[in-house]
Amino acid sequence: MLEIDKFTRTLGLYNLAQSSFAAMSPEAQAYFQAYADGVNTWLCAHADRLPPEFMLLHDTPEPWKPA
Q1: How far apart are CA 24 and CA 28, in angstroms?
Q2: Rounded CA gap, 30 and 38, in Å?
Q3: How far is CA 63 from the centre of its chain?
Q4: Prediction pTM value
Q5: How far apart are CA 41 and CA 16, in angstroms?
Q6: Contacts of 7-13 spanning 24+ positions with Cβ under 8 A
Q7: CA-to-CA dists, residue 43 to 6, 26, 32, 66, angstroms
Q8: pLDDT of 8
Q9: Band (41; pLDDT cuts 50, 70, 90)
Q10: String of b and e for 3-31 (b: at least 16 CB within 10 Å)?
Q11: pLDDT (mean) for 10-19
């Protein structure tokens, strides 16, 4: 996975997502923020029922951001 991470960072995908989000209308940004908020609410409410890979890796998902 390290090679994939390096590759996506080299492409600058997250920076592109951030600039795309910043260029959206306030209404579109609100939709993306609401979606991320919903995912984060679900993650908090179901922290004890996450997919097994999180338990196996002793990890938790990061909070979602609209970008």
Answers
A1: 6
A2: 12
A3: 6
A4: 0.79
A5: 26
A6: none
A7: 27, 25, 17, 15
A8: 87
A9: very high
A10: eeeeeeeeeeeeeeeeeeeeeeeeeeeee
A11: 93
